[in-house]
Amino acid sequence: MRFLDTDDLKTGEIFLRLAKKTPADGEKQLVPAYHFTICRTLDGQAVGECNLRIGHNDRLYYGGNIGYRVDEPYRGNHYAGKACLLLFKLAEKHGMKTLIITCNPENRASARTCEYTGAVLEEIARLPEDHDMYQRGERQVCIYRITLNAQKEQKG
């Protein structure tokens, strides 16, 4: 996989500043990933982080293609959801048709972020005992799926 330019991941409100790119690691079942700092366009203030994992495998079904975190003082502004929408553009450039976004069933704010993006709850799944999320003490995960370009396909 070739990493692509990310300078266009911005709106009038936020932009994603590339922090690092990580290559695939087949032994650990890790796919290539982009890691970003979410920044406000107005003043460049960092408000959180997000990442996009390119590809699909069993591990990612539970962990998701997208991860995000917004710093507490900046929560409530939909920054995570807006960052996800920008990440969708990058995923499309990589030819991805669907993405998985997951969250803990008790994390209502993260579930609202998934819903904000148009993702649909596919299931609440039990984590396999050999998954690293299970090893960290989690037992279940909400699995949301988003079909990219769904709005364009419906209009076309």
Structure characterization notes:
This protein is an alpha+beta fold and 156 residues long. The chain has one domain: 3-Layer(aba) Sandwich (Aminopeptidase). It is built from five helices and seven strands. The strands form two sheets. It has a four-stranded antiparallel β-sheet with strand order 1-2-3-4, with helices on one face. Strands 5-7-6 form a three-stranded antiparallel β-sheet. The longest helix has 15 residues. The protein is 26% helix and 33% strand. The C terminus is likely disordered. The protein is globular, with a radius of gyration of 15 Å.
Strand content: 25-35%
Q: Helix-strand pattern, N to C? A: EEEHEHEHEHEH
CATH topology tier name: Aminopeptidase
Provide the spatial order of strands within the biggest beta sheet: 1-2-3-4
Rough outline: globular
Overall CATH architecture: 3-Layer(aba) Sandwich
Largest sheet: 4 strands, antiparallel
Q: How many DSSP E strands? A: 7
Terminal CA distance? 30 Å
- How many structural domains are formed by the residues? 1
Q: CATH H-level name... which superfamily?
A: Gcn5-related N-acetyltransferase (GNAT)
Structural class: alpha+beta
Helicity range: 25-40%
Low-confidence stretches: 151-156
Mean pLDDT: 93
CATH class category: Alpha Beta
Q: Determine Rg (CA atoms, Å).
A: 15 Å
What is this entry, summarized?
This protein is α+β, with helices and mostly antiparallel strands. The chain has helices spanning 58-63, 79-93, 108-116, 132-135, 150-155, and strands spanning 14-22, 33-40, 46-53, 66-70, 98-103, 120-126, 140-147.
